[in-house]
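Changelog-adjacent note: as of this version, every example in the card shows the full chain rather than a window. The one below runs 343 residues end to end.
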Amino acid sequence: MFTSQIRFGTDGWRSRMDADFNRTNVRRLAYAVGKYLSKKQGKSVIVGYDTRRNSSVFALDVASVLGAMGYKVQLTSRPTPTPVVAYTVVRTQALAAVQITASHNPPIYNGFKFIPDYGGPAFPEITSEIESYLPEGDVHTQQLEAQRFDPMADYFEFVSKNVDLTRLQGLKIVTDPLYGAGFGYLSTLLSRFGAKVEEIHGYPDPEFGGLSPEPNRENTRELAKKVVESKADFGIANDGDADRFAAVDEKGEHYSSNMLVLVIADYLFRLKGLRGKVARSVSTTSKLDKLCARYGIPVVETPVGFKYLAKELMSGAVLAAEESGGIGYGWSVPEFRFAQFPT
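Full-length structure tokens:
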């Protein structure tokens, strides 16, 4: 089965696996990516995936198609957060990455995300060109053995150099990756800096425990309960590919990104003295504008979609926020951060 109606949305192509997100269409789109990249110098491409059903199979199909087209493909050895894959593109100076994920969508969905060499969401002019290279039929290729690697250690080193995590020493924290690609990431990183960490839902489950892997109030009730019962200082939850987050305090109260960005911005501007423009999507809280006005910080409003915020980060914004749970920092690659630490 295939269709010629593959279209990128706000952050990649997503569809139902019982409809048209299938191996045929994934291979077609991988071929189109290869054609797009053929005009650029270099051959290295990163491929990652989340914990959804068949994500690893789709990722291997992408690696096989691109490998047959002459690209040097590195495939993550385990489900990996989208921000980690994005950082790896920049660190290794790869041409691009493909991440197989449907982010926070229900388990029946999957997705194909293209990450260019700057390590952020692909802009519309890029995805439109990729769409123009889609072949009509399936792309037949022999499955290749891709080079496997785990980018966790390199990402931890990057974060550790840019964020003072020693302040977490002695804190009791509960993490909840919601059965997604962030399992083992945040818990390991925080533990290395002296935090006492307990991880719940810390293993891959393609059905995400019967929920959509979105860290909203409803889906973080177990996290809130665990934080209160264990007398932890706070808890952090991520979505399916760990590029969105939410938190709960010691009383089990849920903090959405619209609330957390105010806390983070106030910390950066009042306590750290950071200055520079801030970007937010049109649906992100306008309270951010009022807070920034206190410190003389200009705010840029963008359409919905982190790709528009990415452009602002690439042009000098020190902070960018979207109401869906993503925050980006000027010191990092222009992609959502799975661990939302200010500097």
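Structural remarks: The domain at 257-324 is CATH 3.40.120.10 (Alpha-D-Glucose-1,6-Bisphosphate; Chain A, domain 3).
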